[in-house]
């Protein structure tokens, strides 16, 4: 089992490397790889990473993340709050995103993450009359 787990993780890492260049990640492949990994190592973190692959868009991914939160096994996990902030932000649901960015800020001590969450929080709270962020 350890060998299968290691192989699955290596495949995901290899598939995600092109993600560093926007638009080049093969998200359907990454989703399949996370499905394979969850068969070997069924953890809530793997399930969260699978949801982030969001092959079907941010709305279904957010529904999947909300379902994961109900299980309670990711309570206090800062990356859960970060995902719960980013998906609504991309849907233009800025108040929801701002709330989750505040929660993520409360959960992290990492200065790089704090700077990122602070910047995103500012974007989410600076909205135009249509409720969309005025920043990119």
Describe the structure.
There is one protein chain. This protein is mainly α and 136 residues long. It has seven helices and no strands. Helix 5 (78-90) packs antiparallel against helix 6 (94-107). The longest helix is centred in the N-terminal third of the chain and has 15 residues, at 2-16. The N and C termini lie far apart (44 Å).
Number of helices: 7
Which class best fits the helix and strand makeup? mainly alpha
Low-confidence regions? none
What percent of the residues sit in helical stretches (DSSP H or I)?
Answer: 55-70%
Q: What fraction of residues sit in β-strands? A: under 5%
> How does the overall form come out from the CA principal axes?
globular
| Number of beta-strand segments | 0
Mean pLDDT over the residues: 84
- The succession of helices and strands, N to C, reads HHHHHHH
Distance between the termini: 44 Å
Please compute the radius of gyration using only Cα atoms. 16 Å
The major beta sheet can be summarized as: none
Quick rundown:
The chain has 136 residues and is an all-alpha fold. It is built from seven helices and no strands.
Helices and strands in order, then pairings?
Elements: H1 2-16, H2 27-40, H3 44-52, H4 58-70, H5 78-90, H6 94-107, H7 111-125
List its traits:
136 residues; mainly alpha; 7 helices
